[in-house]
What does this fold into?
Amino acid sequence: MTGLLERLGVELPVVQAGMGGGIARSELAAAVSEAGGLGTIGIMPAGALGAELRKARQRTSGPIAINLLLNLARAKHWEVARDADAVVTFWGKPRRQSDNVWLHQCGSVEEARAAHAAGADGVIVQGVEAGGHVRGTTPALELLARTREALPDGYPLLLAGGIADAADVRRALDAGAEAAVLGTRFLMSDESGARQAYKQRLMESRETVLTELFGLGWPDATHRVLWNEVTERWLRGDRRGPAWVRLANRATGPVLARLPDSAQGAALRRQRAGVPFLSPQPATDQAPSNLLDAGPLYAGETVARIHDVRPAAELVRELAAGG
Ligand SMILES: Cc1cc2nc3c(=O)[nH]c(=O)nc-3n(C[C@H](O)[C@H](O)[C@H](O)COP(=O)(O)O)c2cc1C
It folds into this structure.
């Protein structure tokens, strides 16, 4: 591995994706960084994000990144992010808002060009195989090749989507990626904040679906999830979700995204599979248990090939053996 991550003090070409809403907290990020990769804390309310960054610093002296979703991040999130070693942004018009190392995750060549022009230190190229929210519409390696042609030689490109083992990491590096970025593999680690029952479903599942169903407060945003009661109920017709629900999500999105956390918490506890106004909040160990059947069980296509939940440090070492 050369270049950007090395300058950050990252030893191995393995980056743990930021996974918001309490999936990627300090335990996971610190375990990954302590093992030589780059750990990332996902977006959450700004006060909690600051506390998680401080906890991660107590657990490791390795570099820590913070992931911010540009549609949800507010000034207070940026105040916290400036104290991280790197900030990784996603979902929105790329714009430099801090002096630390900045990566932007992109789903198209156009988006990568825009991030480069805005001064990003590198981009994460996301393929359609990815779990969680997905901007990519083509396989990751294909998008990497096209992005490489469009941007100057040596500009750091990282690859996300469809990476689960050391051979996948090797393929990404051979194709010119500076590092591999993995979400689903680290979601299925001891340290992720996913509920035990969610981890169990991940181990048992093979199939995912790309949808816009969980669009309350975040409309028109494609995401990849496992099938569960609520997806079975509402995605038998249009995989994106019923048109009237998407329309309502679009109309209410700007207001709902600004609701105080307490109001959002109360709404989450009432979320049911029978009522298709569905928040993107994942089923973490701190979220209400009804979200297992009435919420998004984010997962990438690699869930078909991953059948265990393991310590993150062990995963980092094993993944990097391909590097
Ligand atoms: C559970 C889960 C939550 C995610 N949340 C975020 C997020 O908050 N911000 C972000 O930039 N990407 C998020 N992603 C997408 C990842 O950044 C990354 O693109 C993806 O995980 C790569 O594909 P993989 O899941 O096949 O490894 C999430 C992915 C998963 C699986």
About this structure: The domain at 4-192+307-320 is CATH 3.20.20.70 (TIM Barrel). Residues 17-20, 23, 42-43, 67, 69, 90, 105, 126, 129-133, 160-163, 181-185, 187, 282, 298-300, 302 surround flavin mononucleotide (CB under 6 Å). The longest strand covers residues 64-69.
